[in-house]
Write a structure and sequence with these properties.
363 residues, 13 strands, alpha/beta, disordered N terminus
Length: 363
């Protein structure tokens, strides 16, 4: 069992298309160089990995707008005509959607969020499909290394959009789930005034407790918010970080066990969890995926927002020590959080949600 867990999800190098390389550096034309020395190798990242090349990753950028909701335009940062001949318009805000490990641009949350964003606003939606670099046949360590190149590619595309169409960085918003949240961080690190990053349950393994340059952090955009929903330690099958990573960090239901997800009430036995891993991947990642569902719900049901209360911890919130929004300055979880969240760094917001859509409790 432990060999299965480690080789398929975390540390063992060399499985199928994964790679293991000694300390070194790789360079890729316009994207620059990537090394595997500290802080990218550390106690939290004990095995050094170098990212794949852009050719190996084959990252694709799929543009959707209200004019082409079902058939995307392919954008390429090294092909000006792909931008000029697309439906991209600089006057619109631009939303990037970035999936995580064991996922793709066709994943249901990505497509669902694309659709609700286009329903809500006239925006450019760019789906970042880095499926080959996040393939489940890879070991997890190689996938984490690949996030750095994907982030650099997003930054380069944003630069190209600015150069060729006049689109402004401050009007770009990157929404990333799991490893995709850290992809967004790497993109923002290379830009001067990226408008916003939303981290949907940023991935924990190889990131929690690391140097800010390794993970998503508040300096990566003018406003960084995060929704934490699966913050148990990874050895307890938690996939998300509990550490704050933004200006506003939301912890619905304490940031760990989400109502309605299997295993959060009675089924905590190790054997039951093992059976779920081998039979139904989504049951194990239900808490992790809830962050995406909450984000989508925050767009669809904007008139009944999920209100987060700034508080020291979840227990204090549950005992009513942080109820007064007038004094504390509460904030809206999700898409519209930038309207009323505090702009200080690492403000923690706690709230409770229902087990299904709509997730908002009566206010």
């Amino acid at each position: 069992f432990f060999k299965f867990l480690l080789s398929d999800l975390y540390f063992i190098p060399g499985k199928l298309t994964g790679t293991f390389r000694s300390s070194g550096e790789v360079c890729f034309d316009e994207l620059g160089c990537f090394g595997d020395s500290r802080p990218f190798t550390s106690l939290q990242r004990p095995i050094p990995y170098l990212p794949w090349s852009p050719v190996e990753l084959n990252t694709e950028f799929w543009l959707y707008t209200r004019l082409n909701r079902r058939t995307y335009n392919v954008l390429k940062y090294n092909d000006q005509t792909s931008i000029n001949n697309s439906h991209f318009r600089a006057i619109r805000p631009t939303k990037f959607l970035v999936h995580g490990f064991v996922s793709s641009g066709e994943t249901s949350w990505v497509q669902d969020m694309k659709n609700v964003l286009l329903d809500a606003e006239d925006v450019n939606v760019i789906v970042v499909n880095w499926e080959q670099g996040a393939n489940p046949k890879l070991n997890y360590g190689q996938a984490t290394a690949n996030t750095r190149v994907v982030g650099a590619e997003i930054a380069l595309l944003i630069n190209r959009l600015e150069e060729q169409s006049g689109a402004l960085e401050k009007n770009a918003h990157i929404i990333g789930h799991g490893l995709g949240a850290h992809v967004a961080g790497y993109a923002g690190e290379r830009l001067k005034r990226l408008g916003r990053i939303t981290g949907l349950d940023p991935a924990e393994p190889f990131y929690q407790g690391t140097d800010p340059v390794v993970r998503l952090d508040p300096t990566d955009a003018l406003y960084v918010d995060a929704i934490h929903t699966d913050g148990k330690p990874y050895w307890q099958f938690g996939w998300g970080m509990m550490d704050p990573v933004g200006h506003a960090d939301f912890y619905p239901n304490g940031g760990q066990d989400q109502p309605g997800c299997p295993g959060n009430e009675e089924e905590s036995d190790f054997i039951i969890v093992f059976c779920k891993i081998t039979s139904n991947w989504w049951e194990v990642t239900c808490n992790h995926g809830r962050s995406c569902e909450l984000m989508i719900d925050s767009i669809v049901n904007a008139k009944t927002p999920m209100i987060g209360h700034p508080c020291a911890d979840y227990d204090s919130y549950l005992t009513g020590k942080c109820d007064n929004c007038a004094e504390a300055g509460c904030a809206t979880l999700g898409y519209y959080s930038d309207a009323n969240a505090q702009k200080a760094v690492s403000v923690k917001y706690y709230l409770q949600t229902r087990s299904e859509v709509p997730f908002t409790f009566c206010q």
